[in-house]
Structures are given as structure tokens and as C-alpha cells.
Amino acid sequence: MKYRSFYRNRTAAFIVIVLLGALVYSCANMSRPGGGPRDTEPPRYLRSKPLPDAINVTGNRIEIDFDEIIQVENPSEKIIVSPPQIEAPKIQAQGKRLRIELLDTLRPNTTYTIDFGDAIVDNNEKNALTGFAFSFSTGESRDSLQISGLLLNAEDLEPITGMLVGVYSNLDDTAFNTLPMERIASSDALGHFTIRNLKPGRYRVVALKDMNRDYHFDNPSEDIAFLDTIVEPYAVRKQYVDSIWVDSLTLDTVITYDYNRFYPDNILLTAFNEGFKSRYMESYERKERNRLDVVFSAPHDSLPLLKPLNFEPRQGWYLLEGNLTNDTLSYWLADSAVYNMDTLRIAMDYYRTDSLNELSLYNDTLQYIYRPPKTQKKKSRKAKTDTLPEVEPTVFMQMTVGIAPKQDVNKPFTIEFATPVAALNSSAFHLSEKKDTLWIPLPDSTYTLVQDTANIRHYYFSHKWKPETTYRFSIDSMAVSDIYGLHTDKYSKDFAVKSMQEYSNLYFAITGVTDSAVVQLLNNSDKVVVEAPVKDGGAEFTYLKPGTYYARLFIDRNGNGKYDTGNYAAKLQPEEVYYYPSSVELKAYWNVEQAWNIYEKAIDLQKPYAIKKNKPKDQKPPEEEEDEEDEYYNNMYDGNYYNNGTTMPNNFTGTQYRSF
Q: Considering the entire predicted model, what is its pTM?
């Protein structure tokens, strides 16, 4: 019995040891975790020092604890401290704790706001804590009012991300140019902004793409926006009703919450650039012996003055080829004694931008050097006495005729000469029409040859082309000669014109336009294909290539036919822009008419999703957004954003919308 008990106990112990060994082995071996649901929740606030909305705060360090390990992404860009800080604060994530140190001296009796945007993310899945802001006061009370709205790019209605939006209680127009904004926020991925912790009072609202971090508009190349009206923030006590459900069919409890609703909450800002460009000489070169080129960085209304330094020119020693904006200039040298010189020194007087951003006359000395291209030397051959000397080929004036394989019914074709024209014989240009197998010459009166006003070497050949007709265009030899004595060779080309079955026509019947306006047809990259003015309530487009188009309209306030930006000094807003809210599909040989009320949809809902450039990762496409759209805006806003429409939300007031 004793031996049996001993062995029985030893066997049991052995089994226990084996099991423990197996357990240890299994724990020591690395294996893939069993998994579990993916973390989709952002970090949660737990505690902070000081507490949120604390008063009488004296220290400049803030510590905030979260429920998981965090990271801070792009703090210098995404985290906004208000009032603005001259010296950027130190922001550091340490495990689950976020430390902020404000390096500017704290102002007395001031409410501070730290708006984190979407900078705080968890360590593993990068789930962002959006809309999180922290405030405290150095005085006995905390300012608590706020305003919010939307920031769009004026010309294409794209939401603008990361642009500063601020307020001034100083209502002087010059405050934006001279003083830092008093309280600021940053627009989020969808262009929304909220300026928190405002005092009661009257404010101007502005936005700024702050290039030099001085929080005011002192650089004319910065993007800006401004509201025409004065804003007075206020709050209304409201109730929010929530429901707790046992399951999808059984209601358990209805809970009512009281909360403050802050107004105005639908301010619309449209950002623009005044178009200022610093003017200076970008480059000058001499690619060809007989041409001097100079390029400026910006347009100007006057031309440079030239004074030769190392040669004595004759009258008319150059021919100027410029453009409409006088920023790209070519001087064609007409005097052989001049262009045969390898080095030309020229004094040039021109206007350039000085340190005060003003145009001032500047004198520059340019040295144009021509370096002939290297040519391979031909191997010498012993001359044969029984052969004639080689005849040099005739050099002709070069030209390019831009006739497409199939000519458009409504367009001219172009002729571009390589050198400036000295003489042109229009009677040496011929056009014939093919009828059956015969070529019938057309009278000169049926076509025109017109020189381009912007490019002196460019000409347009126009005719009222007949669809599905074949033409022959020809030029006689020596029809055109250049300033160097060269002339053109003879030329001939046959071409056909497209049929009407290859085109579509589109007409927009437009309501809501009380001023002159222009409609632009766009491709799927939001680029302008063609534009037409609004006449008698409509805009017509003919001879369009079949395909998918989008449309944009701008109010042409000054009637110049082009889109004009704004100007802060003149208190001039950019011209208003509207989008047709869907695409237009055109098929061959179709005539399409579309009704378009430019105020039918709010500004922020007009631009079709397909051509939007700003598409945040978490933004749903329109088919998924449609069911949630009304609920979203009912919860966030009492109305959407309008420029100056007849369809306005019921709570519209003059301070909530931009008026023109």
C-alpha cells in the first residue's frame, strides 16, 4: 500500500509537471493574436489641469489626460490658440497625456481657447478626436458666446481647409490691415469654422491665409475673405430630445436635454486673392541670333524702354512681338549689322515692384550673348574635276497651317509664320470647294484672313464652312515675305468638314439672374471648355462635342465678360458664383434644354460631387449622404448657405448672410 501510494503520487506529480510545461511552452511561443473588433473610437477626455472652463488661471501649462495613448499630428498647422500667439506654443504627447505650454505672457481677464481640430489621434488606428476644444480664463468670468459658418473659395465654391477665420471688435476698416485678429479659428476639412469664447458685442468677420504669421492682412498676395455686415453673437436656450430604445421597435425612454444654441451659425465667407503679383524680370535670353526675349513675372500697362550701349542702331532696328499683358516680349532684330554681333549690351528701363509693394522705375543693363549651335565638320573629299559644284537649296520662310483632319463647322483654322511678316498678298490665298469630282474656286469675299492682335505672326483663316463638305486650301509661292527677305513656298491641302450629326446643342433657361451673367461649361476636371453670356434669360451653346458636361455661372457685375476677383480696400466682393447641381449628358445630334434656378439649392450643396476637389476621406458620396442631409443640417444649422437668394431659411437675418 505504501509503495502503491508513492508511485501513484509520483505519477500525478509527473502529469502536473507535463501539463505545466506544455502551458509554459505555449505561452513562450509567439503566435498571431486571436483578434477582436477593430478600434473605431477616438480618444476620450478623462481629466485636465486646469479643469475645462476654469477661471482665475495663472499658469501657462495645461495637461489633459485621455483614456488611451495618443499622438498629435501637425500641431503647428492644426491646433489654433486664441487669442493668437506670437510665439508658437509647445505641444507634446506623452503616452495618454497631452502637455501644452503657452510661451506668450498670459493677458489678464482674458478667455483662452485651444482648438485642436483633428490633431489628436489614438496611437494604433489613428482615430481622430474631432471638434475638441479647451478653454480657460485668467479673470473672474469666462466669455462663452460663439459664431460659426462656412468658408468657400469664391471662384469654384471649393471648401477651404486650414484657413484662419477671425473677428475684430475694432470696426475700423483698417483694423484688418494693421492689427492682429482678436480671436481666431481654423476651417476644417469641409470648410466649417467655429470661433469660440466671444464676449457680447459687435464684430467684423474676416478670413486670412496667413503667410507670414502676423495675423493680419499686410501681404497683398495672401488669400482673404470678409463679411460685409457686422455680426452680433447671441445664445438661445433650447431643448434636445433623445430616445433610448430597447430594440429597433420598442421605445424605452425619452430624455430631454437643455443646451445653449449659439447664433449666427451659418455665416458664409467666400475667399479670394486680389491677384497681386510682384513684378520683376524673370529671364532674358537670345536663343536665336535675330531675336531677343525678355519675360516679366506680372502684367503691366507699359513697355520697357531700350537703349543700345555697344552699337549704333538705325531707325526701326527691331520689331516688337508682345502679348496683351506685356509680360512676354520678343524683339526681332531687323538690322543685320546688329544681329550679326555675338554680344549685344542694352540698357532697359522698366517698372518693377519695390520693397513697399509699389511699382518704381528701374534701370537694368542686359547682356545678350548668342552662342551658335555646334555643327559637325564634314570630312574633306578630294574634288573631282568632272562634277558640277553643289547648289545650295532655297531657304523658304517657314509657316505652320493648323488644319485639323476634320475641320470644325464653327471655327477658323490658323496660320503661324516662324518670323515676322513684312508683306502679305492676300490674293495669293485660295479656297476651293469640291463638288462631285470638280474643284470650284470660291470668291475672295467668302473668306477672311485676320492677324491676331496678341501675336503678330499668327493669322486666322475664316469661312462659313458647309458640313460634310471637302475643301482645298492653297497658297501661291512668294505670297508672304518676312523682314529678312525670305518668302514662302507654295502650299496646298485638302480637308473635310464635320457633319452636324457629330455635334450637340445645349440651352440653359436660367431664373434668378437680375444682372448680366456668364455661364461656363466645364469638363470633369472643373476646367472651362467654353462660355457664353446670359441673354434674355438663357445661355446657348452650339457645336458641342458629345459627352458629359458641368456648368458654372458667375454674375458679371461690371459687364466685362470675365470673372473678377474682390478687393478689400475698395470693399469689393468677388463676383458671385453658382453651379448647376448635376451633370449634363449630351449625345450626338441632340438638342438639350435645361431649366436652372440658381437659388434652388444652397451654395454649399450646389457643386456636383464628381468635380469636387476637396473630398475628405470620411466624406460620403452623395448617394450615401442624401438620406442624412436634412437631419445633418437640421441638427447643425437652421438653414444652409446662400449668396443673395430668394429661397432663404425662415430665420434669415441680415447678419447671418452675405449681402451684395
A: 0.83
